[in-house]
Amino acid sequence: MSKKTLMIVMRETAAISLTTLLLATSANAEVRFEFDYSKAAEFNDPDLGPARRASLEDAAFRVGSQFHNEATIQIEVTSEDKPESNTLASAGSNGIDAPLDFFGYFPAVVEKKIKEGIDDNGAEPDGVVTVNFGVDWDLDDQISESFFDFKATMIHELLHAMGFSSGIAVDGTDVYFTEPGNPGVWSIFDEFITDRNGNWLIDNDFALDGDLWAQSSLGGSSPTAGLFFSGPNALAANGGNPVGLFSPNVWEDGSSGSHLDDNDPALAGFLMLSATSEGPYTRTLTVIERAILTDLGYSVKEGGEEVDPPILSIAIVAGAVNLRMAGDPGDYDIEGSSDMAAWEYLGTVTIEPDETEITIELDSEEGTQFFRALGSAEGGEESD
To answer: Which of the residues 53, 160, 166, 223 has the least number of beta carbons within 10 Å of its own beta carbon?
Structure first.
């Protein structure tokens, strides 16, 4: 049985259109991301590459710190330079073939690894993220009104890789080309898709209603038309109402059905809309978006709690680096790297209520050095 290639969900523009590196930091993140930059030329640029990698890793920390689930996810990074494209970035999880006799909702590699602790593809990458550097990105936290917010977009994309996406194609088929009306294999997200009246698109026998799909998938704007997400937590967070999904009357591959509805004023400014524009953008999940992730089976931290990563400041003293750390009290593993691809464990420190300082001897033959802090396996317990 042949299988479609993995759907990659994309973030588009709303309209086409130091030399000193901020240190990559991470602490107490339950879901951690490891990136393979070997196929990403723009991330290996000798001048801009380090800052690009640092910004992506900071965005990944911000995603991982939202969950109580524990996992380490390997992401293959690719990049391109296409100023003519209106796609900013795309991301997805690699998939594993479902058993021949399986029908229902089947998790992709990233989802299963995070939620069940099972790594279905071994040493292969769990997912992929692609970034278009043909647009103007702002990599830090002070976003120019004429640049795109890189970290906000990467947070958005990594959440797609975690399963915030539909696996239903424009013709209503599943990843195995199963025609509507027949039992199929769907993404976890698809289980909760309805029309505007709350009618399920997929029935208890895992068959998609072709007529209902044809009416809703190109239905237009919520709250009066289109596709909706009707998971129980999402309904409760949205006042008992289903949450509108992006359902324009012309299908957009990678966007339709896999994002919240850009055209619903009630959802304006949400992180998981299909399009963004220049200037600073939200990097925070709303209560509704957290509820959707809970419906997908994730253990999401309550109240939007976020862990502040430790801030590392550097002082170079006679062949050594003095790292001053301030952040949530707890134990942290310090790692160093010369390329942000391979990291070396340097030691474990405890952040006290006041700042903590650690001195690390430098290899005089090395050039630029990067450091990060990771929540220690033996310590760093979450505090209430």
So the answer is: 223
